[in-house]
Amino acid sequence: MTNSKRSLVILDDQKLILNALYRTFRRTEVQISTFHRPHDALSYLEKCSNVGVIISDEVMPLMRGSAFLKQAAKLHPQASRILLTGCASTLSIDDRINESNEWKLVTKPWSNGRLIEIVESGFKRYESLKNGLNVHSNSTLE
To answer: Model's pTM, two decimal places?
Structure first.
């Protein structure tokens, strides 16, 4: 699958959260693909070649978001990965970042405007990496 439009993949087991995230990005210049099962998202990622940003919830019944992002990184190593979580203790944040090597960790509830900025920065990072430019990783909590 190829598409010139920037591609955003969103995974969350809660459909209300998926709908909220979709509404956040529907007016942007982004192709949005949403999934509520990790294995469906991974199947989609196996078929795509241009995914620039991947957002995943951390706490899901079938697979933790950090484990999903770790697998997604193998399929799309240049994609910016964002872990979305409602629980953000310092120790667990460090563990998640080290485990899945995500680029950003965003806590719930999120600010729509700030999340759009983070995703836009993620696409810029992805495009720089894709073009072979050296980009500082800059993993942070938002």
So the answer is: 0.85
Going residue by residue through the chain (142 aa), what tens digit of pLDDT does each one get? Answer: 444 589 999 999 999 999 999 999 999 889 999 999 999 999 999 999 889 999 999 889 989 998 999 999 999 999 999 999 887 554 455 555 555 456 788 888 899 999 999 999 999 999 998 888 765 544 444 4
Q: Which helix (H) or strand (E) holds 6?
A: strand 6-11
18-56 as b/e: b if 16+ CB within 10 A: beebeebbeeeebbbbbbbebeebbebbeebebbbbbbb
104-107 vs 6-11, strand pairing mode: unpaired
